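User: For documentation purposes, I need each entry recorded in a consistent format: the amino acid sequence on its own, followed directly by the corresponding structure tokens. There are two entries in this batch. Please keep commentary to a minimum and don't merge the entries.

Assistant: Recorded as requested. Entry 1:
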Amino acid sequence: MIQNVLILGCGNMGGALVRGLCREKRLRKNRYFLYDVISERASELAAEFDLAWAPHLEEIPFTPTIVVLAFKPDDLSGAGIHLQRWPEAMFVSVLAGVSLSDLASALAGAKRIVRIMPNLAVEVGEGIVPVCFSPDMEQDRKEDFLFFLSTLGWIFETEEKHLASYTALSGSGPGFVSMFVEALADGGVSIGIPWETSLKLALQTVCGTAFLLKARGNHPGLLKNQVASPGGTTIAGIRRLEEGGLRAAVMNAVEASYRKTGMSGGERRCR
């Protein structure tokens, strides 16, 4: 079934979702319409994929089937006034820190509400998207929506109470991995490899290792042991990483991100 999809917010996450959903013409089975308070964001993203956009919410020319809320959480109360005119739509929120009950209050009359916490890798179809449905969502609508997201990467349904921990790991994770890639490339530069070449080597090393681990399905420690020959170069480097506290630093980073989400319930703008 072809659906009318309205994307409200074309920043980093909104843009990543649009690119992931529209990255190939054969995947673009729905009608997309874009809006952002900064009109240039919507118009530029729309031009990238030949989509429609509007400078004002009042100018949306159709009744949307799906409305994606990808703007700042503080803007929900103002937007809610306009959104209440589409009570039959499915409202999909990527707003950190805004619970299903908060959304239900702001979207008075809405029958179908979903929370998703994607990471930026959805842009290339390799993302992680935990999905939490409102309690009264029909099963057939759930299945249709999960299929709608299927081009974005690993999509799975979860309970709302788990969203904070998933966000801390997979939502913040691309930032941690990017720092490691940069450090790996800097290490190459420090031993004489030109920056551009070093970065390509670092990127391919990380990508290749991730694909290999995913394909084998083994514990990562097994691959580490296979690479680290007795008395060899890899184990020498691993010792330095252990001396530098790499494991503890990464674990502490995930825990710090989780604490920032708000331990008392609900994520608090952790991305």
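Entry 2:
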Amino acid sequence: MSESVQADVAIIGGGMVGASLALALADSGLATVLVEGIPPGSQGQPSFDDRTTALGNASRRIFEALRVWPDMRSAAAAITTIHVSDAGRFGFARLHAREQGIDAFGYVVPNRVIGAALWRRLQQCQHVRVCAPARPEQVRIESDRVVITLAPGRGSGSPPVHIEARLAVGADGAHSMLRASAGIDARIEDYEQVAVIANVRADRAHDGTAYERFTPTGPVAVLPLKDGSYGVIWTARPERAAEILALDDRSFLRELQERFGWRAGAFIRAGVRASYPLKLTRAATTLSERSVLIGNAAQSLHPIAGQGFNLGLRDAAMLAERLVGSPGDPGSRETLEQFGRWREGDRSGVTRFTDGLVKLFGDTRPGVGAARNIGLLLFDLLPPAKSALARVSAGFAGPIPRLARGLTIRP
């Protein structure tokens, strides 16, 4: 026997963006179903892996509004200073939160903590139905509804479920099934880079500084963690990344020190290393018949500058605001097109910004390096430029979601 479920909104993908949207809609009066293929807490769920996420202040305010920030705060390390440098050259730039009149530029939080906080809150919501583990086996998009047939997760013992929703939201990552079902193309640019991630400890505790070090083989980010150690994102060509992963801890720390320098002190201990390939994936459109894409299903970015998740979370917050503020059919063309207009400026701006940084600091043509360094020095001396960058976390263009401004989702 199969079960039939009627819903206003069906969210495919229960990672950090999809779960956030479900929470934002929990008290909206819209019947919401969240579909996730991997059980919460599983090692295979990206929202519960060993990576960390740098949350901008707008993202922190969204999480405060969703009542999950208290469960993250104790594991959150404040970023009070940002230090950007170009290896082998004299240019660098520094931003201090106090100069911008704020306590911190953002907070570094382990993905496991974010995912656990979101799903703990979801389990308390009576108005969101969670189907997990379950995967969409078939998605059929019609003029008045989207029909999603779920295959229950292995070992769940649950019967198949057929969901009929007025709106389907793809929050299912860079290889989105909903995007494919809706016939939306995606442009993929392979940066031919791999990010090697690890936690390392230095011989002194951090002071709240987040470092971005650009090297000839790719950027190295060193981010402060709550326990006084650092999270490292070391970007390299695939063959070099394989060599880094194969190093013993002593050799890994030595090579990281040579690549990064001594600003954070001497690195003395390394944790488990992992890696993932880096590509720019951008959907040709985020909208189709009764379907909308958010987060990595809409755009998957290079981790440089730490903007990807923050952008996806603003997608979720603005979509929830649009759905709550539009009585009637949540999957109507008018509702979705307005959401698309609201988000396009921010989405395009952040994508160009991150892609431009990758290519600017990867450009080895004669004279480009010197120009970069002059630019960094000028940036370090110009308060207006620093203020503009400090505001990036609120969004590049278009309206800022109410939740990101510390307001309720309803006017």
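Summary note for entry 2:
The CA atoms of residues 30 and 37 lie 22 Å apart.
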